[in-house]
Amino acid sequence: DAARQRLQWSIPGLVVDLHPVLGVPEVTAARGMFLTPPEPNDDAEAIVRRFLAAAAPLYGLSQEEVGALATTASYANPAGNLRWVTLEQRLGSIPVFRGELRAAVTPGGEIAAMVSEIVPGLDATVLGRPTLAPEQAIQLAADNIGVRLGPLPARIEQSGDGLRHRFE
After folding, report:
1. Among residues 161, 156, 160, which one has the least CA distance to residue 138?
2. How far are the Cα atoms of 99, 111, 139, 163 from residue 128, in angstroms, in the given order?
3. Stated pTM of the model
4. Which of 5, 56, 143, 167 is in Cβ range 3.0-4.6 Å of 61 for a Cys bridge?
């Protein structure tokens, strides 16, 4: 609440819809105005990253976590009236499931809105490496959705770091 109030002082029309599970902003916009002032000569990604760095507490992120977000898209729509920037959250090199933030930026360099499912408080050092064998993980996942696998599928490929596996 304190982070939202601080942001409302500079953006009086601020609207923040919280994610029902994560408890952090899912949609961030402003009634009758933009989230940022015009910056027509600046890169859309830089504009989004500056705003997110300033609003990091609202999203439950540290400055390091904001800096670690990977840019997966930055493009203008065909009409040229909006640029879209997508930042992805990763643990090491592994993308976090649905851990993305998308921002719409006007040609004048104003952020119109942001939509996010970035997960707050993820720490790769605390979460560590997987403790189950990949075959056990498949069996557990199948059990969780009520599927009986019988014999486990055969592993046909493994990444060099041992974190990704492909099965038959």
Report:
1. 156
2. 18, 36, 21, 12
3. 0.78
4. 56
Which residue, among 164, 55, 47, 30, has the nearest Cα to 120 in the 3D structure?
A: 55
Q: Amino acid letter at 163?
A: L
Q: Contact at 8 Å (CB) between 11 and 37?
A: no
- Which positions ≥6 away from 166 have C-beta within 8 Å? 155, 156, 157, 158
DSSP string, 7-74: HHHH-TTEEEEEPTTT-SEEEEEETTS-SS---TTS-HHHHHHHHHHHTHHHHT--HHHHHHPEEEEE
pLDDT in tens, 89-120: 998 778 999 999 999 999 999 999 999 999 99
- Between the alpha carbon of residue 163 and those of residues 64, 91, 113, 142, 148, the distances in Å are 24, 12, 35, 19, 25
Determine the average pLDDT of the residues in 15-39.
Answer: 95
